[in-house]
């Protein structure tokens, strides 16, 4: 029996709970193993709406362990619009390194809202079509941003926002099983 793939889920702080839980519930219901890493210096994070969550680990502990996972999910949230002001924080430096490492290794890359923009910042989307939040579209330099609800291009699965994740979720599950 072939084991389902293992997924590293990145949750920014604060994270959009609607987006995060669509992935987690779908993985859980389909027997796909995952671990949630806070893009923070603590495992305690909040949703955009203020609900406290304690996740599995922090992103610093994912660095150097990328080979233990087959896929990466970037779960967007209200931390992203203020990313530039916090780009030098160790956990955000780790975030960009982890994204680049997963991308360079050709692993499955999944994200919504500004997820494609974060992937694009590292250069890993070169030649790929990506779906991204309309406000983040001008920031896409390496890949090609479209106006589609979601895009699947090779190992990249991207959606415009949390309300369009459902359009790619069945394809994500298929790729991870």
UniProtKB/TrEMBL annotation:
UniProt cross-references to Gene3D superfamilies, sorted A to Z: 3.40.50.880
Protein name (database record): Transcriptional regulator containing an amidase domain and an AraC-type DNA-binding HTH domain
SUPFAM superfamilies: Class I glutamine amidotransferase-like
Pfam families: DJ-1_PfpI
Source species of the chain: Bacteroides xylanisolvens XB1A
Domain spans labelled DJ-1/PfpI: 5-174
InterPro entries xref list: Class_I_gatase-like (IPR029062), DJ-1/PfpI (IPR002818), Prot/Nucl_acid_deglycase (IPR050325)
GO CC terms, sorted: cytoplasm
GO molecular function terms listed in the Swiss-Prot or TrEMBL record: DNA binding
Top-level lineage group: Bacteria
Keywords, in A-Z order: DNA-binding
KW Signal (keyword) present: no
